[in-house]
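Tutorial handout. Part one gives the primary structure; part two gives the three-dimensional structure as tokens.
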Amino acid sequence: MLYYLIKIAISTTLIVTISEIAKKNSFMGAILASIPLISVLAMIWLYIDTRDIGKISSLSMSIFWVVSGLFGKE
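Part two.
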């Protein structure tokens, strides 16, 4: 249970920090928010939880296809 609380605390802290930075400097907030931070965090948490490279590879390919499908259309 402590592990899940740590994951929630880290994820929440990052989101709140980025939103606070954006209040002061929207450009810097945009740069930080545009980094695929949530995707990277999801891959890190998945690796720590499973140590399964195949699952991480599958997740990253799924993220790629979703993002390319959303932004690949003109």
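Part three, for discussion. Residues 2-71 form one domain. The two ends are 45 Å apart (CA to CA).
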